[in-house]
Amino acid sequence: MYFLKKIKYFVLFVFLISCLSISFFPKIGFSSVEEPKTNKNTNNQPHLKYLLKATNLDDHLFEIKIQIIGNTNKEIDLAIPAWSPGRYVIHNFAKNIQDFSAQTQTGKKLFWQKLDKQTWRIESLGENNLEIEYKVFADDLSGTFSQLNQDHANFNGASIFMYLVGYKQLPIELKIEKPSNWKIISGATNDINQTEFYFENYDILIDTPTEIGKFELDSFQLGGNTYRVALHNYYSFNEKSKLLETIKQIVETQVKILGTPDFNHYTFLIHIVSPKYPSDGMEHLNSTQIIESSVENIIETASHEFFHLWNVKRLRPVELGPWDYSREAYTKSLWIAEGLTSYYGDLALVRSGYWSEKKFYSFLAEQISLLESKPGRKQMSLEQSSLDTWLFLAAPKSQLTNEEQTTISYYNKGEILGLILDLEIRNRTSNLKSLDDVFRYLYKEYYLDSYQETYYLKGRGYAYEDFLKAVNKVSGSDFNEFFKAYVSGTQEINYNAFLAHAGLYMDGSNYSREIRENPKATNEQIKLRKNWLLTQTKSRTAVFGRLFGR
After folding, report:
1. What are all long-range contacts of 253-259, with beta carbons under 8 Å and residues at least 24 apart?
2. How far apart are CA 473 and CA 479, in angstroms?
3. Cα–Cα distance measured from residue 412 to residue 391, given in angstroms and rounded to the nearest whole number
4. Could you tell me the pTM of the whole model?
């Protein structure tokens, strides 16, 4: 999730003013229904078919039909999530549900009642085949909600699809009806004319944002995988070639860290909007949805969201997948899932050559200044910030609070923690190991080589303590005091002590801080810096030429 990163730039600005087309078969989670798959269904479990109609454009109403075939229960519950993974806010999507009804396949009406804000109970009376219908009002383009209008249809599954309570683990078939001249693109589509899909479970269904309309589609190949870039333009956009070229280089840069992903294709769903429209970005299993107004913002957001395909979508805290959609999912590890993703998203910008080293240093200095401007850094730890995200980070402001004095962002401090942790590991291991190696170890241990812990997805979640254990194991050093001071504690950071490992130093105060290269840096410090930033690799121009055949 990236939209909150934009908020910090706004806060920074305010503070300154006041002071101063290819067919392929996906490996994970979904396929065309034309491709038979073995599933975990049994004769005693119902079969689920979903139909989504995206044809009521003027009223902004998606129409949903859920067929439950093989029901044996006297009553069933259907619910819609109160929140969506990656966006840790209770949104209560049920607010946009209307015209709910339930009947048998033969048309017999069934009695139903709402149990709570998000759950409908139907007296099915053991009827074998059931049909549930409802409509969803949708006119909000974002990484959370959905939109249906004359221009396009875009949906995020948690805001649209109900689930059969107690059966989220079952496979789901989805069929989409749309205007005849519109096409469909998502992380599940084999081609843009496909209208029927198969998902291994509900969690993967709603982890697949979908764009339906008249979009531009480009693609590139890397490491045997296909990467698609779908552009939906509300406003003119003349920098597509620059965008595609840079996204490809960022993908290659990040793949070098954790290896070729275990899918055949990945999809960037990009919406070009007015600068006045709220920007957004959201990670998904095989895709990302990005809403931005400029090529620079798209690239920065794409770099963040793409690293999420490893960190949080596959390598994940134990609390994050499968989910309880009826209540908050508390974890102390969001600084890892989001803060360290921010670090690697920005590190990839300089490693790929998109950012200069000077630009990267300037950005890091801004992040440090932002944290140092927060009185809450002396009260709230990184792990507490992760737990309390449901209270503060993106929650609607329904009451006056003192959060400006008492809180920090795990995006901001998490990125700074990534910086100093990376440099400290490199220093303690004589430049032989890094945070890259920690992520490689965790990804292999908890995903690639792990047993499957739940129905949701390959691998198993890591506990909060497992991350520290991995750092200690990879580095061959004891980082317990480091974590006590800067992760579970609020000890002030001596930035220059860590920057010195890379032959850097910071001077200035408030928002005039600058990070510079020390002209007296030792050869070992310079070598560490080059290994960290990978500046000893080919220039950006040379690499782009190789990628694009020039």
Report:
1. 253/348, 253/351, 253/352, 254/303, 254/306, 254/307, 254/344, 254/348, 255/222, 255/223, 257/344, 257/436, 257/439, 257/440, 258/310, 258/439, 258/440, 258/443, 259/440, 259/443
2. 10
3. 17
4. 0.91
Q: Report whether 198 contacts 453 (CB < 8 A).
A: no
In the 8-state DSSP scheme, what is residue 87? B
Of 187, 325, 352, 358, which Cα lies nearest the Cα of 267?
187
- Residues composing the chain: 550
DSSP string, 192-213: TT--EEEESSHHHHTT--EEEE
The CA distance from 476 to 470, in Å, is: 10
Pairing of strands 216-222, 225-233: antiparallel
The sign of the dihedral angle between the CA atoms of 472, 477, 480, 482 is negative
Residue 6's pLDDT is what?
Answer: 53
Paired strand residues for 30: 199
Tokens of 405: 């004095």
User: Cα(243)–Cα(527) distance, rounded to whole angstroms?
Assistant: 32
HSE-up of residue 60 (Cα within 13 Å, Cβ side): 11
How many other C-beta atoms are found inside a 10 Å radius of the C-beta of residue 177?
13
Both tokens assigned to 539: 């220039």
Q: At what angle do helices 240-258 and 295-307 cross, to 10 degrees?
A: 20
Would you say 447 and 459 are in contact if contact means Cβ atoms under 8 Å apart? yes
Tens of pLDDT along 289-343? 999 999 999 999 999 999 999 999 999 999 999 999 999 999 999 999 999 999 9
The DSSP annotation for 238-284 comes to --HHHHHHHHHHHHHHHHHHH-S-SSSEEEEEEEE--TTSPPEEEE-
Gap between the terminal Cα atoms of the chain? 35
Comparing 61-75, 151-165, 397-411, 530-544, the range with the smallest average pLDDT is: 530-544
CB 141 within 8 A of CB 42: no
A 10 A CB-CB count for 385 gives: 25
